[in-house]
Amino acid sequence: MKGLIFTEFFEVVEEAFGLEVCEQMLEQANDDGIYTSVGSYDHKKLVKMIIILSQLTQVSVEDLQQVFGQKAFSTLLESLPIPTGNITNTIDFIQHVEAFIHVEVKKLYPDSTLPTFEFISISPTQLIMDYLSPRCMGHVCLGLIKGCAAHFNEEMAIDMVPVDELGSHIRFTINKL
Question: How far apart are CA 18 and CA 46, in angstroms?
């Protein structure tokens, strides 16, 4: 997982819970918190920190992931390897992620493990897609979708249904309101 995700996570934690909680989380995770945005790191470190943060704050792991995804959207958008200026809505952007952005990220970082989106049904007002990822971070994806909708100033109803018990396969139904 790219260090950009870790550095953004620390910023979100500090903003939401303060530096002291961030330091407690790192201490309990036995993590020095030193990450570069372009470095590659084991995603299990992030999962461990989210679990510890949940214990410290009494906020569910799922809610923490979702808030993180939502707040991280704009940072990730700015870091994209290709322009997205001609994309004007959430549904088109999500399709663009799979068709172009993930392809370009893979070229830049061949060792990266990216989630996959399989599109089941697409219309101008609805997208049904499956999220597939061995990292099982569907709630981060939900937050990213919400962040995307906010970026395009759209109201979306998002339904998230796990297809497997692990959370590595989730079906999202996204309806424009």
Answer: 18
pLDDT in tens, 93-142: 999 888 776 676 667 677 777 888 999 999 999 999 999 998 889 999 99
Q: What is the pLDDT of residues 3-12, one digit of tens each?
A: 888 999 999 9
Query: Which own/partner contact pairs does 49-56 have at CB distance under 8 Å and 24+ positions apart?
Result: 49/9, 49/25, 52/25, 52/28, 53/13, 53/17, 53/21, 53/25, 56/17, 56/21, 56/24, 56/25, 56/28
Structure tokens given for 65: 């992931």
pTM above 0.70, yes or no: yes
Instruction: Please tell me what DSSP assigns to residue 126.
Output: E
User: How deeply is 123 buried, as exposed, middle or buried, from its count of CB atoms within 10 A (0-12, 13-18, 19+)?
Assistant: exposed
Q: How many CA atoms lie within 13 A of 66 on its CB side?
A: 10
Supply 13's token pair: 């934690």
